[in-house]
Amino acid sequence: MVGPRGETSRGEETDAARIRRLEDAMLAFVNNVNHAGQQQQQQPAPEPRTIFEKVARHNPPTYDGVCNPVALEAWIRVVEKLFIATQCPENQKVSIATYYLQKEADNWWAISRATIIAELGFGWAQFCEALKKRFYPEELRWQKEREFLQLEQGNMSVQAYADKFIELSRFATGVIQNETARVRRFEKNVTLKVRSIVAGSPSATFQQAYDRALSVYASVKTEETEAVNRNFKRPFVPQTSYQGAKRPKFVSRQISSGGRPSGPPNTVCMRCRKSYHPGKKCDGTPMLCFKCKEPGHKAYECPKTFSIVKGVDAGPS
Hints:
12 helices, mainly alpha, disordered C terminus
C-alpha cells in the first residue's frame, strides 16, 4: 500500500517534507519579529512625568561662571525660552535652572543659596539679579554699554553690524528705551551712503530698518563694483601721448656758423620731451652725420655743407 505524498510506506517524513516544514517555521518567525518591531516603532515615546523632564528633553545649556556678559545673557535667555515652551511654574524655575550651573557658578550657588534666598527671595528674577551681580560686575556692564555707544558700521557688512548691534543693545537698556530709539540708533551709525537713503523715510520697526539697510547696502556695493570694473577696462594712456591734446608746434631755430643750432638752452626735445641734447641721441649716444660720417651732429647741421654753401655765396657773381 502506497502512503501519502511525501511520506514513506511506514509513515516516516521524507527529507523534502522536512525541509519545507523548517522553511515555513523560519518564515513565520521572521514575520513575527518584523511585526513586533513595527509595533514598537509605532509606539510614541513616553510622556515626561515632571517639568524637569520636559526641560531636560531640550538639552539646556550650562553656565560655568565665566565673567562674560554675553555668555551669561545668552544662557539666561535660552533658559527663559525653555521655561515658556514647557510652561514651567514660577516656583520651580530656580530649582531647575540651578541644576545646569557648573564649576564656579555651581560653587557660588552652593555657598550663597541661603543668603540669597533670605535677602532677595526665591523668585526667578531675584535669582538672575544675584547671578549677574556675582558674574556680571558693574565695570563690565559699563564697558559693554560704552562699546554699544561707540558702535558704527564702518567696514562691516549690514548683517554683521546688525548682529553686533543686537548683541550689545542688551547692555544699553537705558539708551534704548523703546523701538523708536532702537531704529534711530541703528540708522544713525550705518555708513553715509546707506544712511542718506534709509534716513529719508524712517522705519517703524527695527526689522524694517534692517531690511531696508540691507537692500540699500547691496545696491551700493554693486555700483562700487561696476565702477571699479569700468576703470579697470579703460585703456592706459601714457603721459607722452598726444591723444586728446594738440601736438606742440615745431620750434624753428637758427643755425649758427659752426653748424650747431642756436637758441635757448632749455628747449625741449621733440622726441623724448626732455631738455634739448645737441649732438646726442635721446639715449645719450653720439649722433653720426650721414654726409661726413663724423659724430656730434646731424646731416642738416653738417658744418662742411655750410662751409661749401658759404664759399659759393662768397664767390664772384
